[in-house]
Q: What sequence folds into this?
């Protein structure tokens, strides 16, 4: 089991499958908010559903839409389980707190190189840790 | 008789509260204010805020397209709790255009919900200005003034051009600030976050709004970081409000940035040293005219289907409406093409009075009020129904923000956009 320490975190512990993105993410620029599928042409996770997954995202893009969008996704039953950012903006925190989604920022190892889409990850925001079983090289 | 004792959550996180803020948290000012300050404490504590700062103005963002039924229910709940804004508060661009252009049909049911949102705004003491450019008409905060603005383009303009202080206050956050009259002091409310971090040596002749959008893309895209603050130096002239508006909107969109400086132009950058607060730039970029041209050259048209030219994102100012009316005067949008402008009610009212609206509409341009194009409700279906493939715009922000709706976007200068609209020839 590998443990990653994060700089900041909020929310309750959660365990779910990861969806790893290689680029920034905005619910308005990149997501079909009616089916929960990444719809931006050419996005590294195009065609993937965010539903019930821990989104692992290097940066946030834009945009104020996230302030309401995560709450809306929750209401539609297609919300992710948690958000883990390399760097984020306040919109993501405001949106996550409103929707009750655990959120983390700033990892001490290169999470994008260590975790793959589909891996199960365990977030403990109060301990500021994210744990997972590493893939064989 | 109810003999249960209510357990009041007095969790204050990292914040030290004043007696008035304690009273809010205890519920002395009603449940809406109590819920608002609890939310603010959670968000503020994430960023390690130590205190609240009073604000003078809030700008809220919420429309049925982005709030959904869940957000509307949340707004209803605030209304049931008699939520009232304690500072002057305006609203951002909405998603329903209420225009009769058959090509832009929107859902009647969603329209009814949007009208309910706007009615609830008024009850809450929010002025439904439906403007994403409040800094050009509605309210201009001064140097050092703290506000809570809920649209990225407005935030970066307030911080950079006006020297006011705000973070991105999205969704519930701007409403909460309007109800409590304060916001947690983190990020751009604090001096240290406002120091420049990246030097941009600007050697390009900037002659069109699209050039400013292209510049925002060149600087923002490779440096996506809310806390990055680019410092532009070298323009050699005083840019207009509209030019800085396009630069800021683009930086916020591509780079998620909330502040920039321009040496000799913006109030906290009288000198390069002042902009960097005496520190050294982390990185230096040089931007030339060739770099700007390379941005235009990077876009490719997709064959087949119909096309649309859009002037939006941010909404057009009165002088942009005047300029566009002059360019379309005596011309006509080509058969099979569509041309759309968005602005707010204040600008539209004056542009109508001054004849700009009539000139544009005579040329076949559709003018939508109170909305921004990329947030329109039902936009993906509207695109499909019209077979729109390429979306051409002079807005660097718009060609980035609209992509979830699967348009192929192309950035072009204003003259090119008008020519494309009137000839139907993609260039």
A:
């Amino acid at each position: 089991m590998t443990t990653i320490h994060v700089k900041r975190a909020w929310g309750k512990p959660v365990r779910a499958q990861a969806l790893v993105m290689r680029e920034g993410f905005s619910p308005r620029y990149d997501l079909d908010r009616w089916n929960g599928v990444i719809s931006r042409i050419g996005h590294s996770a195009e065609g993937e559903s965010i539903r019930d997954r821990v989104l692992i995202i290097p940066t946030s893009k834009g945009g104020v839409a996230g302030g309401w969008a995560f709450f809306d996704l929750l209401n539609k039953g297609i919300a992710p389980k948690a958000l883990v950012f390399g760097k984020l903006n306040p919109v993501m925190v405001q949106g996550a707190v409103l929707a009750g989604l655990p959120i983390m920022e700033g990892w001490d190892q290169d999470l994008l190189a260590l975790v793959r889409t589909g891996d199960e990850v365990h977030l403990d925001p109060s301990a500021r840790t994210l744990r997972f079983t590493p893939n064989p090289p | 008789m109810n003999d249960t004792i209510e357990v009041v959550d007095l969790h204050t996180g990292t914040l030290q509260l004043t007696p008035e803020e304690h009273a809010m948290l205890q519920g002395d000012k009603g449940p809406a204010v109590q819920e608002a300050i609890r939310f603010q404490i959670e968000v503020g504590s994430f960023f390690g805020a130590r205190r609240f700062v009073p604000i003078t103005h809030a700008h809220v963002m919420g429309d049925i397209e982005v709030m959904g039924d869940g957000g509307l229910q949340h707004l209803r709940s605030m209304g049931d709790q008699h939520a009232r804004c304690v500072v002057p508060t305006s609203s951002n661009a909405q998603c329903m255009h209420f225009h009769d252009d058959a090509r832009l049909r929107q859902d009647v049911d969603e329209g009814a919900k949007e009208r309910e949102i706007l009615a609830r705004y008024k009850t809450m003491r929010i002025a439904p200005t439906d403007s994403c450019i409040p800094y050009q008409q509605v309210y201009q905060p001064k140097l050092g003034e703290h506000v809570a603005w809920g649209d990225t383009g407005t935030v970066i303009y307030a911080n950079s051009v006006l020297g006011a202080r705000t973070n991105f206050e999205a969704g519930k956050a701007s409403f909460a600030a309007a109800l409590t009259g304060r916001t947690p002091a983190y990020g751009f409310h604090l001096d240290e976050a406002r120091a420049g971090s990246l030097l941009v040596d600007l050697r390009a002749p900037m002659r069109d709004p699209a050039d400013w959008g292209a510049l925002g893309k060149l600087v923002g895209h490779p440096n996506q970081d809310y806390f990055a603050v680019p410092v532009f130096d070298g323009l050699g002239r005083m840019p207009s409000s509209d030019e800085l508006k396009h630069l800021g909107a683009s930086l916020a969109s591509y780079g998620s940035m909330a502040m920039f400086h321009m040496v000799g132009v913006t109030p906290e950058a009288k000198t390069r040293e002042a902009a960097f607060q005496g520190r050294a730039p982390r990185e230096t970029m040089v931007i030339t005219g060739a770099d700007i041209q390379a941005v235009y050259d990077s876009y490719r048209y997709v064959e087949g289907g119909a096309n649309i030219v859009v002037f939006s994102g941010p909404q057009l100012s009165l002088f942009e409406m005047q300029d566009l009316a002059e360019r379309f005067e005596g011309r006509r949008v080509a058969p099979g093409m569509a041309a759309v402008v968005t602005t707010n009610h204040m600008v539209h009212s004056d542009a109508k009075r001054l004849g700009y609206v009539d000139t544009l509409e005579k040329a076949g341009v559709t003018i939508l009020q109170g909305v921004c194009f990329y947030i329109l409700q039902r936009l993906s279906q509207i695109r499909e129904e019209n077979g729109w493939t390429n979306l051409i715009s002079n807005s660097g922000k718009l060609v980035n923000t609209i992509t979830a709706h699967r348009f192929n976007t192309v950035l072009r200068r204003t003259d090119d956009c008008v020519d494309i609209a009137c000839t139907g020839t993609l260039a």
Q: What stands out?
A: The radius of gyration of chain B is 22 Å. The longest strand of chain B covers residues 337-343. Chain B has three domains: 19-190, 195-296, 305-423. Residues 305-423 of chain B form a domain with the Aconitase; domain 3 fold (CATH 3.30.499.10).
